[in-house]
Amino acid sequence: MPAEEVPFTELIQQPTSTTGRLVGSRSLRLRRRDADDLVLMTADRAEREGEVIDLTTRILAGLLREPGGADLVRRVLPRALPWTRFLPQDAMDELVSEFIATGHAAVTVNNLAPISQMLVEWRHTAEVYADPELFAVLSSPHEGDFGPVPAPDTVA
């Protein structure tokens, strides 16, 4: 269920009625004009969701340590992430290996953001494979060096 969206200013101007909306909603997405949106939820709900994420992460990490765990992940990943069907087998193998390595590392530092970033990057890779024209452009040989690339903060 998507979070109910409210302007951040509503929370500032009417804090009691805005937070009262959490009774009928899982969370509130606070839209901000000049910054990333925020999510507001009860501490109890955040703790429960954190427990589920922690348990799921530990189960997955344990599964991956078992013999055949990587093969199991390879078989179920297309059901969990349908876009992986666009990846050729060697790319799928690379995704699974990277997922396992990143998952192990992320759990050790209690930060799942690297897994999320890795999935975003692989989803974009699948998008390239899914578009034959884009794939042809990006995988065709190119001539020359395309010249110097300006630093991000100096782009004209």
Give the topology, please.
Layout lengths: L3 E4 H6 L1 H6 L7 E4 L6 E3 L2 H23 L3 H12 L8 H20 L4 H18 L1 H8 L17
Parallel strand pairs: 1-2
Antiparallel strand pairs: 2-3
Kindly name the structural category: mainly alpha
Strands across the major sheet, in which order? Answer: 1-2-3
Low-confidence stretches: none
Percent of sequence in beta strands: 5-15%
In which range does the helix fraction lie? Answer: 55-70%
> What's the total number of strands?
3
User: Helix count?
Assistant: 7
Query: What best-fitting shape do the alpha-carbon axes yield?
Result: extended
- Structural domain tally: 2
Mean pLDDT: 89
Order of helices and strands: EHHEEHHHHH
| Radius of gyration based on Cα positions | 21 Å
- Main sheet overview: 3 strands, mixed
Could you give the distance between the termini?
42 Å
Any overview of this molecule?
It comes from Phytohabitans suffuscus. This is Prevent-host-death protein. The chain has a 3-stranded mixed β-sheet. With 156 residues, the chain is mostly helical. The protein has 7 helices and 3 strands; from the N terminus they run E-H-H-E-E-H-H-H-H-H. The longest helix is centred in the middle third of the chain and has 23 residues, at 43-65. It folds into 2 domains: 4-41, YefM-like fold, CATH 3.40.1620; 51-139. The chain is extended. 60% of the residues lie in helices and 7% in strands. Helix 3 (43-65) packs across helix 5 and helix 4 (69-80) packs across helix 5. It has helices at residues 8-13, 15-20, 43-65, 69-80, 89-108, 113-130, 132-139, and strands at 4-7, 28-31, 38-40.
